[in-house]
Amino acid sequence: MASKFGLAGGIPERRVRPIWDAIDSRQFKIALRQSTALLAKFPNSPYALALKALVLERMGKFDEALSVCLNAKELLYKNEANLMDDLTLSTLQIVFQRLNHLDLATACYEHSCGKFPNNLELMMGLFNCYVREYSFVKQQQTAIKMYKLVGEERFLLWAVCSIQLQVLCDNGGEKLLLLAEGLLKKHIASHSLHDPEALTVYISILEQQAKYGNALEMLSGELGSLLMIEVDKLRVQGRLLSRQGDYTAAAKIYQKNLELSPDDCECFLHYLGCLLEDDSSWCNGANSDPIHPAKVVDCKFSHLTDEMFDSRILDASTFVQKLQAETSNNLLRGPYLANLEIERRKLLYGKKNDEELMEALLQYFLRFGHLACFTSDVEKFLLVLPLDKKTELLEKLTKSSSSLSTVPIQVLGQCITLWKIQELIGNMYKLPICELEYTALQMTEMYCKNLPLSKDLDAQESMHGEELLSTACNVLVQLFWRTRNFGYFLEAIMMLEFGLNIRRYAWQYKILLVHLYSHLGIISLAYDRYKALDVKNILMETVLHHIFPQLLVSPLWVDLNNLLKDYLKFMDEHLRESADLTFLAYRHRNYSKVIEFVQFKERLQCSNQYLVARVESSILQLKQNANDIEEEESVLERMKCGIHFVELSNEIGSKSLTFNEDWQSRPWWTPIPEKNYLLGPFEGISYCPKDNLMEQRETNVRKVIEKKSLLPRMIYLSIHSASASIKENFQSNGSLSDPKVSGELKYLLDCYAKMLGFPLSDAIEVVVGVSSGLKSSGAFGANMVDWLNFAVFLNAWNLNSHEVEQPDVNGCGSFSWNIVNSLLKNCILEKVRSMESLICSPPDDLPVLVNMVTEPLAWHTLVMQSCVRSSVPSGKKKKKSGPADPSVSPVCHAIRYSIQSTRGILEDVAKWLGHHINKSEDENLDIIFSSLETNGQDEGPGQVFQALGTYISTINETELGVRTSQALKSWSPIDVARKLVSGQRVVLSEFLQICQSKIKSLQAIQQQMAQV
Amino acid sequence: MTTIRRFCCNDLLRFASVNLDHLTETFNMSFYMTYLARWPDYFHVAEGPVMGKVEGQGELWHGHVTAVTVAPEYRRQQLAKKLMNLLEDISDKIDNAYFVDLFVRASNTPAIKMYEKLGYVIYRRVLRYYSGEEDGLDMRKALSRDTEKKSIIPLKRPVTPDELEYD
After folding, report:
1. Predicted pLDDT of residue A3
2. CA A65 – CA A43 distance, rounded (Å)
3. Fewer CB near the last or first residue (10 Å), C or N of chain A?
4. Within an 8 Å CB–CB cutoff, is residue A11 touching chain B?
């Protein structure tokens, strides 16, 4: 900072330098002392004040910092002398920004620029303020002023970018583009252009207006030489020509591009599209999701005659053959993939060339079958083949593989490929159980057999054949799905843990284990494996989905809190600093990055996961504090009593959401968090259309946010409704309950009921029906927790409104209490009873149980706490007596009964948890290992597990190398089993702790009620 | 698909599987975006990104490879070589630099071997370069402007991070 000093606000540099030094070395106390001394010497210096504010802000004294900053601002405004330097302003700006008052920083710069209209430095500062506020119009106006002042190209481009941002982000009209074009044209006429990025922006402005001819003219003229990377230039030319409809010329350009980079598959697709006069790749490009691009490019042929099609395809084939012939690098897949694409197009056109496509695939296999990317390379070509042909192809590939390479690594690669192809075409789902078992066994044995191949690899490198354990896991999980025999599932866990023992960095195993442990309900282990993935920064946005949904419904609140905190911190930090990085791009004249950064920030801001995390983070706080009504009220106050969340709930239907998650890495049985095939009956899933799943996911996320966002407000209103009802009952001053609370709560109940699929009156009927036993809890479907929440809020509302009463009974006030009490009791204890054994039957019911206790039951206790608080006479220790004694009122009776009932439920759950936690380890280990026993038979689970054991007993250290041998020797299945047992105990113990603290809190209010 | 193109922000969301790899560092956002904002020509992507920059003065004007990585499925196909060559080309032909350099953990033997195959030599050892713990190796490859290959004559003694000209 020192170099920036000079005379700042009239203060000599030597006086301010020590303060900056102290700040830089984080010695804030010293800095504060020095800045206070400086201020005593220069009491009217805005800079001295700004420095002090900066120090105060760093010390966390935000209110003081703001007040000092406001003083500085006032002084600046009053300042009659011409002391308006950028250093003062930028220091103030930093503090205002950190205090979330960007508007005040902007106001200071606006004022200064008004006073000194020709000061370029101040104008740049002001422009930067507008960049931070995303005020594109004001950015444009300021940039134009700067351009007019000094005539520099960069300021014109700043203005042009600001215009483009108005068009792209604020739906600004097309006239704006015309304005940008005019500005650039005029500038080029007088000054030409000097930055390659300026040309890129100009071309994009023309392209956005479909003025492709003009853009091409620009590119082929003198300015075209600004683009120095030839391939980049050709790409732009090809794109412009094809968008213009000049396919012949475009094809030539792409041909040239391919000659320079024959492996460029994207370029080949454009080339072929141009030959076939098909603009699909461009149309799709505009609408498709850039994060999850479709694997298959759509094709249009109807406009081509047969002869035209044949001749164009011939051209393409000839060119591809030429590329293949000229390729000396035998790792170049591009020209061979191109051949496959040609055959695919022919098939789609109706050429009935299945055989040729299969032959091309076979040839591709012979050449690249050993590569790990083979399966993903050929996926889209396999998709167009009919089922019988796929099977025929598989046979051909299998047959040919025996005559292929003898290089062990290549042989191994081909074998893996064949299995992956079987998986891809759905063949695995059709195999009989015994064959599947055999396949899993073969895969595992092959993995072991090939371990010596990786002897000389570094421990950090991935091994040859590493994928085998992942594919074997897929098979074992399928076996579990088909047979419901848990042995296979445990076997998969054992096998992957075995693999991790050898290669501790194999993230693919870790992800599979995250999901396997999650399915068993052992979230503590799932989370351990997730943590071992070292997920940080942007990876959180793409990878969090592997654990986030499971953790949300688990009792591991500390872990969930950490996860949410880290994720929200990352996102919020990026959203905060993004504008400064955008300004950096402006400064370095990388204008296309300016647009990109703003759009990317918007993409992250609209992330569905980010929204869910924000809502869930608030709900977690409410859950954590539900045992203490005062704490809960402070939490609610901090979230503005839930008002913003209600707004979010209302808006979510029309809000644009982005989905940035990486779905590719999810295992087959749960391709999105909402879907878990293992929970349903076995059905072959040869090919899962991800598009439909994505729609399902989007609908689900919107529903979840819509519903959950109402919770904070409903809790807040319920607390108030409950306390108002007591006051109404007990106070004789005639004050009535707040009608606004009741009205709003009824409105939200109405919304909530609609989300559950019913009008309010019908939803009330459902909960009354289930609570009275007339209907089974099955009427709640998969939304049991939501229905219970509804019942809890309904009771809170009814305490005031008395609209839900037992027929033929005159408002004794206990009817809706009873509904909630019996619903909670029935649903929770029913769940408990259904989960007798934990380890060997997947407790997908445990999350529901946890949720019932931590949500509806917790909100119900808050309603009770609120009632009790309002019932207990403040400052009086003695009970009232006499005819108006509230202690004997039906309301009091209902509250007492509810507390007792809720406590009873929790005690039952705690007892059940205690029973499972105290089960002996040996008993659990027995269950695990007995499910892995083969009993000498060649069928059923346990064969893979046994094979691993047999292999370990025969290892050869010279072949394997010391590291692998040691890893194998240290492998202990009993440790894995113990980890399973203790992991489950951790989860249950956390849950038990939650229950116990609730019991304690209920005991406390029971005692309070005794005073009434 | 092995199209090499410029890296863009959305790519940060596309490469989860690359970043999950143990040997690939996931930097913070401002790190990636500073590179994009300042040296977009040095940030390309195929089946994984290569990022770098150009810096230095006089005969120290050089390209720097900050990170290069390839998705596990696409390894052992010489893609890293392609990406490195591209960066070297830009440093050589567009920026007219003297050499390209990179830093690598002294323990990352697979990477060191690969860089050596690509023509890089160990120029010097930087003591405790990585978080004050592990030593780093500064590896260099001379470009056409350095006709006498002066830039890659190995230093005899190791240096400390404070002695680095650019970091």
Report:
1. 39
2. 16
3. N
4. no
